[in-house]
Amino acid sequence: xxxxxxxIERITPTTIIVGIDTAKETHWAxxxxxxxxxxxxxxxxxxxxxxxxxxxxxxxxxxxKQGCDKVVIGMEPSGHYWRALGWYxxxxxxxxxxxxxxxxxxxxxxxxxxxxxxxSDPKDALTIAHLxxxxxYFDTYLPEDEYAxxxxxxxxxxxxxxxxxxxxxxxxxxxxxxxPEYATVWSNITCPTSLELxxxxxxxxxxxxxxxxxxxxDIRIASNGKESVKLMGEMIRAxxxxxxxxxxxxAVRLRILNLIDELIYFQNKKDAIEAELESVMxxxxxxxxxxxxxxxxxxxxxAFMGEIGDIRRFDNWKQVRSLAxxxxxxxxxxxxxxxxxxxxRGRPYLRHxxxxxxxxxxxxxxxxxxxxxxxxxxxxxxxxxxxAFVATGLKIMRILFHMAxxxxxxxxxxxxxxxxxxxxxxxx
Length: 428
Fold this sequence. Notes:
Shape: globular
Largest sheet: 6 strands, mixed
Number of strands: 8
Distance between the termini: 43 Å
Oligomer: single chain
Number of helices: 20
Strand content: 5-15%
Strand order of the largest sheet: 3-2-1-4-5-6
């Protein structure tokens, strides 16, 4: 409630509020005073330089007419349609205050004005303005320089990871249908040696029709001499007892070759993106600081900084926790006391990477492993493994926040406080 109160106090009697409902080609805007009273009729904003200039001309006209000295412009920062307008407003010499409104709040509040579930862009623009007046908004952050590069690189890496996962799943599905026994030979079907052999021996009949000398030679070449007779025997044994589908083999071979090409292509692209991420982190001079903590590599550190942006805009680590949607919420009423859980109202990629940081920290970092073990094995309110990974990720986030804020490298002696160390010692 204190946060809402502070936001309301920022809306003074000399403030003009502009609510904008964004779309691909045409936005809708509504200008109100600090009380939420509409000063003009809703109007369209074309997604062009002329449209943006017209918006600010109309706003400036009302600023002079009402004798105001402050402009707050708000919109729903969902999707990507708002970004061009957002950047234009941020860089404009008039410096309007740019804020965001949660789309869920707009949806829930749109019936308050006319008690109707009717939806329209002009109506949504007015609802957004009213939400701003009532303090239901947040400051919009548009990353700049290296932080913008990191965020875009992280987005591209996510896209490539999805492509790799899709091709991997389709390849496995094809082998499950035409060569289900192949999975018994490999712990990882998409390892480099397996992919190289699949180019020639995608189906059981390919293995059975090849000479033993040729198969052995191909195995040695594909594995750089690491595999030989034993692998050949396993492949022949699997192929000889295969129950795979026998029809459509020519088309399936072609599909498997295409999928292998896709996997290699997207993997190479991902490697290039990750190299660029490391380069940008070196420019920020934060990579070596954050990666001084065991378990935190280039990808996690770049994801952390790309998602939160300039660390100077945060006063404490709890703001980053809320940004990730990892703040605790409780659903209780009267005598009913609900379970406490994380809100998940935040940036999903940051939340995902902090979970991975918890997993990596437990494997590679002695202090984080002990922290995880304490949460999982304590007698009072023990956490299940997944909850303990989330909590460990939050602990790592606090450490990363401190390191990024101060520029200090990781110090194992400061990772766990005296109370936590006593709890760990009591577990034996």
